[in-house]
Amino acid sequence: FPRRDNVSSNAVKPTWVPFRSTLFSEEKLPFSLRLMNDDWSAERVSTIFQLGEVLHFQAGVNTENHVPLRLFVDNCVATLTPDRSSSPQYAFIDFSGCLVDGQLDDATSTFISPRPRQDVLQFAVDAFKFVGDSSNVIYITCHLKVSLADQAPDPLNKACSFNKASNLWAPVEGTRDVCSCCEMKSCGLAR
To answer: How many of the other CB atoms lie within 10 Å of CB of 76?
Structure first.
């Protein structure tokens, strides 16, 4: 057909953003970290522990209206104040999901396997206190994250416990090699 006007090859740029994409990009996932009773059946009422007792933590994420997600605990640090960067501090989960407290001689700390659900991760940590601290209050801050449930665990998305009987790191799921960086204490960029 005959053209009468000049036609530009520049793409059309919409001046509006579809509501659905705006809503999706601003949606936040509701994460939770709860102290549970010894049989994991309910949230623990008391936050008071004695040395020798075990703290049962349950991390979760509400994945309602989302594709299936798998939850991970990237790190957890204990401090004497609410400021996670304060000193002294003790990182009992570190290196993108290595429960390093379980390596201590008298510790039984471990991730619980199997998971109750992909969006929940449970772990047990022996009660502890900072040497020389008389306040008997510890603040625990954890960084939680998710990956797609059908994505295989990798060095940055894993839950690894130290098995004293085998003297090896063991994952809650996935192959043992995802935990090899726990031994090297360096789980930086995925290879």
So the answer is: 24
Coil, helix or strand at residue 183: helix
Instruction: Supply the pLDDT for residue 66.
Output: 84
Find, among 190, 117, 183, the residue nearest to 155 by Cα: 190
Cβ atoms of 187 and 96 within 8 Å: the answer is yes
Tally the residues of the chain: 191
pLDDT of residue 27: 62
Question: Model pTM?
Answer: 0.83
Q: Look at residue 32 and give its three-state secondary structure.
A: strand
Query: The tokens 């003790």 sit on which residue?
Result: 90
DSSP β-bridge partners for residue 154? 157
Contacts of 63 (CB under 8 A, 6+ apart): 29, 69, 119, 146
